[in-house]
Write a structure and sequence with these properties.
The radius of gyration is 13 Å and the shape is globular. Strand 1, helix 1 and strand 2 form a beta-alpha-beta unit. By secondary structure, it is of the alpha+beta class. A four-stranded mixed sheet has the order 2-1-3-4, with helices on one face. 23% of the residues are buried. The protein has one domain: Glutaredoxin, CATH 3.40.30.
Length: 96
């Protein structure tokens, strides 16, 4: 695996959480955008448990770089830009 993106989908009973901010949909949209673009053994997008940054926005971490994004939006004006940036991070990790 050359690029592995984890997206927090943790959902709390009360208080802020990435799952409540739309991270499940974000994972689905990213998988759809990447499907067929890269070999399955090159890129993986996974839901993860809590990454400890829920109060800042949806948290993601890309390995092997260890690149964190903690203010990702899944809805609203900035969401498309955030998705584009995550895809660009993956492309950069693959050397494209």
């Amino acid at each position: 695996m050359k690029a592995h993106l984890f997206v927090c989908t943790y959902t709390r009973e009360s208080g802020e959480s990435c799952g409540a901010k739309g991270s499940f949909g974000l994972v689905d949209r990213l998988k759809a955008r990447l499907k067929g673009r890269f070999a399955k053994d090159q890129v993986r997008v996974n839901r993860s448990g809590c990454l400890g940054q829920c109060e800042k926005g949806i948290a993601t971490v890309l390995y092997p770089e260890g690149k964190w994004r903690v203010d990702v939006q899944a809805a609203g004006a900035r969401s498309a830009q955030d998705e584009d940036e995550l895809v660009a991070d993956i492309e950069q990790a693959l050397g494209e």
